[in-house]
Amino acid sequence: MNIGEEKLSMKNENWSVTNKNILITGSSRGIGFYTALGLAEKGAHVIIVSHDEKRCKEAVGKISSKFGDKSAKYYVADLSSQTEIRDLAEKVKNDYDHMDVLINNVGGWFSSYQESKDGIEKTFALNHLSYFLLTGLLLDLIKEKSPARIVNVASDAHKGINGIHFEDIGFQEGYRPFQTYAQSKLANIMFTYELADRLKGSDITVNALHPGSVASKLYRNFGILEPVINFWIKITGKTSDEGAETSIYLASSDEVTDVSGKYYSDEEQKRSSEASYNEESWNRLWMLSEELTGFEYPIYPNPPETNRNKA
What we know:
10 helices, alpha/beta, Rossmann fold, eight-stranded mixed sheet, globular
């Protein structure tokens, strides 16, 4: 254990989410909602983010009815839009003086090629760039009262692609829905590993996870295939509350107080795909993300070349 790791372990001991501020994106329903519900049950103040205000109100109402009016709050934002991400970050910073846990959970995939308001393929914009930009914009708030945690919901679907398709990031030439989704989940894991390196020596941990195959609204854009996909996953996969368990674990457990830059499934540390450990791709993805968002992260305790994380 080096000096930075010893410091992290000492400050993070006896971690509890009671009275902590936890923001969860994509949390008005599905895995995100059950993550919020589970953390509110543990005493956290949870912050719901979704593009649908009606569902936000319903989610906050359900949580507040069980755990009190101060247990939950919501913001409405379409996280495929960088303008709305920036507006969300400003609102959060105006309302809170610190953030203890950020859970990047929002996600989707699309049966045909679509672009975000910023002209970026929508799966990549929503699933990866929202994680990158929102985390960066809130990083000062996360640092304000550390120790703190960042949790990125990825997927074992990342194993379905052998690298980032840098030459055509949106698969405009021959759009393939699963490959596009798999790439975005691989990007989530690479982002996790790179950010964990950059924050090494701080009191902020960053981990990624696979929630399991869950029958949810993730597959709502697949037309006539949607009921078939959901039927199959309903038989073989998890419920949304089961899918939330590893997110809750990484946000609340003492067992991961000094663990950062790792990939989890079923509350256990797992090895991600070989492609996910390509350090050159980490850096290339980071630079591309900065270019596409126009956002440069603050200064870190360590340069990105040091302390690479490998399982």
